[in-house]
Amino acid sequence: MRYVCHDIALAYSNEVITIMLQKTLALILGLTLTLTLIGCSEDETSVLTMATTTSTEDSGLLDELLPIFGDETGYEVDVITVGTGQALEIGRSGDADILLVHAKELEKEFVNDGYGTERFPVMYNDFVILGPTEDPAKVSEANDLDEAMSLIYQIGKEGDSTFSSRGDKSGTHVKETTLWEEFQLDIEGKEWYDSLGQGMGDTLIAANEMRAYSISDRGTFLSMEDSIENLQIVFEDDDMLTNPYGIIPVNPDTHENVNYEAANELVEFFVRDDIQQKISEFGIEEYGQPLFFPNTD
Questions:
Q1: Bridge partners of 81?
Q2: What residue ranges define each of the domains in the chain, with the CATH number in brackets?
Q3: What pLDDT digit, counting tens, does each position of 37-62 carry?
Q4: What pTM did the predictor assign?
């Protein structure tokens, strides 16, 4: 009888130990899952997704500024580089927290439609008309922008040169299209007009290879000038070629998933006096002139 009781006690003890181990394992798994979820939550809130234009990327400005923002705030900025039109579409779908773009009328429409909270001006540069170094259309001799665009149109019509367009609904493409329309020059279906559907850098590379005319923001041209030796500025300094940039947080009332707090911190960062000063100085050392000018008005 003594042995039977011993066996029962041993079996009971083993069962208790098993139950305790199961509970301990469940507790450990629960804590691990909780910590993982907390970690994921922290990771998600520490990442800020910004959709911006190829010009800000190609110029190198974001490489200069965003590490400062990251060091100050702890936010990691995930940059999506596309044309302005695509950036606005990304904002409309809620796949970005903030936009940095350059098509003012489209930006206002984005905000008015409820997709953005407010447009904040941050900087500007200008567009320049580029052409082959031999300038067969003599655009560099034009008296005004109307004449410059008309000369490009005429030489294309004559079959002696071509025009390389981004063709991607970017801010640069929107400006270019506006100019053709302003001066009543119909480029629809013209063989000399090449709509590439590319970013600014790739468009300039193509124009350089084809010795074509094109339009670019000044910052990207200056940053690439040494590698596109067949191109030069043939017309500049017209009020219609001003190129303002705006930054817009995506509206959390429209897309609850956006990191609105981080977006507002980035806005505050860009409009700060010291960062505006850095924008005004960017490019001077390397190119002899700034690539952008501060603008918070």
A1: 52
A2: 46-124+245-294 (3.40.190.10), 125-241 (3.40.190.10)
A3: 444 444 556 999 999 998 888 788 99
A4: 0.78
